[in-house]
Amino acid sequence: MSAPALTGWVDTDVHVAPAHLDVLAGSFDDYWRGYVVDAGLALSPTQAGAYPPAAPTSATPQARAAGLLPAAGTVDALREALLDPAGLATAVLSCTSAFPVNRNPYYEAALTRAVNDWLLGHWLAAEPRLRASIVVPTLDTRAAVAEIERVGSHPGVVQVLLPVRTDAPWGNVRHRPVLEAAAAHGLVVGLHAWGRVGHAGTPSGLTHTYIEDYLTNSQVAAQAQLTSLVAEGAFAAVPELRVTFLECGFSWLPALLWRFDKDWKGVWREVPWVAGRPSEIVREHVRFTTAPAALPQDPARIREVLELLGGTDALLWASDHPHDHGPGGQWLLDALTDDERTAVTRDNAVAWYGL
Amino acid sequence: MSRLDEFPPGERRIVEAGRKSIGVFRVGDRFYALNNHCPHQGGPLCLGRTAPWVRSTAPGDYRVDGDHALVACPWHGWEYDLATGQSFLGPGEPPVRTYGVSVGAREAGREPGPYVVETYPVHVEDAWVVVDTATRGEESA
Questions:
Q1: Helix (H) or strand (E) holding A173
Q2: How many CB pairs under 8 A join A and B?
């Protein structure tokens, strides 16, 4: 998709990635530098199959021509490819390089610390238009909380980025301290597409094609996570909790929430802390980035989708640079009124992230 | 409709009164009688499960509040207050039709729904359980 043409937009999902593990080595202590060498570890250039080099979804033609695979690795490259031509006011960075890490919880903690040091030291220190999503370990709750406490108060940090695929859904009570720590630091919790290697993307088992895996993010994993967060009472327990779903779509929401509301009326007794309609809880606590936007091309039909969504309040513009999910995001913008477009491309994100 | 000593607590009876089918419930020493016809789609409401209210202050906190006070239709799970016949929806969902039921009936995040099942007064007279179908039965006839 082409970069947004107007000035002053906020892009809520801009990918960056260290080109090699060596880029992060300065943040590892001696033990982990040795571990990386001894184990032959590297950062997967495809992020373990999430972004296959030749898949059209992995990069726009422009980003591909500029060599930005799996994502921009330097500030200058990102300025040239996106920040300047798009005239962005703000870009919220997503680095998912640590998502497909091995299952050593201590290495995962070291790697996420290194990624965060790189985001703050290499990116935010050099470019005032940038904000960071920090990453945290997913296998050790206490380590995740410690990492939020270590870097979560940095003024450029706006979000804690979690993989949408996990060993247990994020609403589960075992994860609650991570959500509490994020909320206590005024940070949004971002659930981003993809996640751990070797993890079945679907409850019916492992997939063996990229297209199944790709669809799983929006059509299976994100919906399961959203259901978990509401049903397990994450928002009841942490009333200040704000969650953004990134690169997971949004046009599936009406069908899920209609069914969720309906069934809640019947089986509320199991979750008596869900003190209101699930759709209302989602409306208050959850936002969605606009890439991918699985929408019809006809603007009149897009208006029907927006009506089912209850408007545009939940939508945050994202290019998802360098990824390419097709023209749905542009079709969405074309179908909006001027006021709606201003909200989706700027004001919603400014309010949500406190920019 | 029954001798009192043949109708122990926790049980129910379905009785016919003219063309009506009526469910009579004994909860502790209280009796309730409802039309055995769910206003939603006509299911046999009084064959459904009864249950108490459950309160919660936080995830994982459950508190059963009082005796069984609700019956759920076996067809679609619509729940009705045994005493008033009032159905419940979620908050913010206005009833399709309004009835003379207090709006203060909001319970556990739920607000009165569109349906009210016909209820009947139940008395115990000389060791017999008596359901009075005359008053409201005449009104609706």
A1: none
A2: 57
Rounded to whole angstroms, the Cα distance separating A309 from A283 reads 9
| Count of residues making up chain A | 355
Rounded to 5 degrees, φ, ψ at A299 are -60, -35
Tell if the CB–CB gap between B77 and A232 is shorter than 8 Å: no
Q: Pick the range with the lowest mean pLDDT from A63-72, A187-196, B98-107.
A: B98-107
CATH of the domain at B86: 2.102.10.10
- CA-nearest residue to A275 within chain B is B109
Q: How would DSSP label each residue in A96-157?
A: -TTTT--S-HHHHHHHHHHHHHHIIIIIITT-TTEEEEEE--SS-HHHHHHHHHHHTTSTTE
- Tell me which CATH code domain A10-353 carries: 3.20.20.140
Query: How many independent structural domains does chain B possess?
Result: 1
**CA atoms of A234 and A333, how far apart (whole Å):** 32
Domain ranges of chain A: 10-353
Q: Is B66 left (phi over 0), alpha (psi -120 to 50) or beta?
A: left
**A287 bridge partner residues:** A244
Interface of A with B (CB under 8 A): 173, 232-234, 236-237, 261, 264-269, 272-277, 280
Contact state of A277 with B91 under an 8 Å Cβ cutoff: yes
pTM, two decimals, is 0.90
**How confident is the model over A191-236, as pLDDT tens digits?**
999 987 667 778 888 888 999 999 999 999 999 999 999 999 999 9
Please name the residue that has the structure tokens 């720590």.
A181
Spatial distance between the Cα atoms of B46 and B72, rounded to a whole number of angstroms: 8
Q: Which of B58, B79, B109 sits opposite A237 (nearest CB)?
A: B58
**Angstrom distance (rounded) from CA A265 to CA B53:** 13
Domain of B73, in residue numbers = 2-140
**Pairwise CB contact (< 8 Å): A273 & B57:** yes
